[in-house]
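thread: overnight batch results

M.L. [08:02]
morning all. the overnight job finished for the chain we discussed friday. pasting input first so we're all looking at the same thing
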Amino acid sequence: MKIAVAQINTTVGDFAGNADRIRRAIDAARVAGARLVVTPELALSGYPPEDLLLRDDFCDQCAAELMKLAPYCLDIAVVVGYPHREGRTRYNAAAVLRGGRIEAFYFKQRLPNYQVFDEKRYFDVGNRPCVFEVDGLKVGLTICEDLWFPEPAAQAKAAGAQLLLSINASPYHRTKLAERYQVMGARVKETKLPLLYVHWTGGQDELVFDGASFALDAEGMLAYQGETFLEAVDVVEVDGAKVRGPIAPPLTEEETVYRALMTGVRDYVEKNRFPGVLLGLSGGIDSALVLAVCVDALGADSVHAVMMPSAYTAPMSLEDAREMARIHGVKYTEIPIGPMFDAFRAQLADSFRGRAEDATEENLQARIRGTLLMALSNKFGSIVVTTGNKSEMATGYCTLYGDMAGGFAVIKDIVKTLVYRLSNWRNSKGRVIPQRVIDRPPSAELRPGQTDQDSLPPYEVLDAVVERYMERDMSPEQIAGMGYNLDAVRQVVRLIQVNEYKRRQAPPGIRITPRAFGKDWRYPITSGFRPKS
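M.L. [08:03]
and the structure it wrote out:
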């Protein structure tokens, strides 16, 4: 039997548009001779709908669109994920459409409530298996988290399932695909049943979903592998315990992360109907990488780079910004900030009399640049994308209402060392970043001779501490015990703690790690807690 895997990109709340995408997948499946079409978790509503799920009208409009979709499924079985409402009760559900009607329902049994997940806030727990038959094959339907536990799979097998089917909306992070293989392999080993994992692809606010749907045969061997971060309707053939389908080649980690960034940018801009993006192009590596991602995601015509030099901007920064704009073919504007900076200092001279220049004047420059970018955004409608990385967000090496001003933070979850890796990878596919941008010491260029390492530990150390403290919840003593200087560890941890107020005001950005500053980082701003070290 042929099963069509509809690895599609839907939009939260766009019920009619999502249904059209599902219809196009059904059309492709018919042409390929498939007898069953499978869509991802909550495909019809988009994922995650968050508190929209608390609205009766949201759920009811989705249900109405499901009923319109049913007559399109006269000669083929289609699994559609959607939120099911019964009075005040909601279920994360999947419907089996066939013969022009809803033939069966399944309600998700395991509700994740960790990291970015809040499903217990919205859904009630299902308690029954759903096994349906297509051309003699009995399919056990499950939803995402269900198969991270043994019981739902065992329940489906006991109900007669010959194939485990899992529909998913599983947010991407750098190790997630390997975790899926491991867990799904355990379910196959326990049940001796083949398994088909159907996944969503696309971006929704901070989250990106990598596609990469796959199938394991009854021996646990990979029998089908979908493309990563690409929409597709793939056909998988099931013959008893045997499964076969196309196998996409594996990607390097750098290419996968880069595709994640492109997906996040493209879907945030296009789904929110912005005409394009604006960014401050400093001549440094962070803005160079963001420029490359935006151009690759949206096209050069949708990107406007703005260089705002000051007296402290190195000539090579100006030269490299011009060169990158030329290479990419984007609109490029230069607006010197010297006259504005002088005007601010003149107006503040009386108030600041007797005090030496310090970070105040540095931040003024960043805030002038932020104001200019936001003015251009207001006038032309493009969204400002910020260029700060995770290392800076962690330590507060960024300016509120300055370089943090904007609508979307492209590399907010990319530590500095990964910025270099991604930049080198992108250049390997075609040079877009001058080599000296990669080689030169990073600097904010807000005072003479400034470099990042004047006030921060080396990025190799800083990034390792951020990852261990912030993503793994390790204590400073544990981190130092891994060979890192205790004073450096203490410095980074202290900076993470005291800069929560900045991060709370930062724009959303693309999540690519198991824990990003955003939905899954919920630390109080006001706190007397300090780790012992």
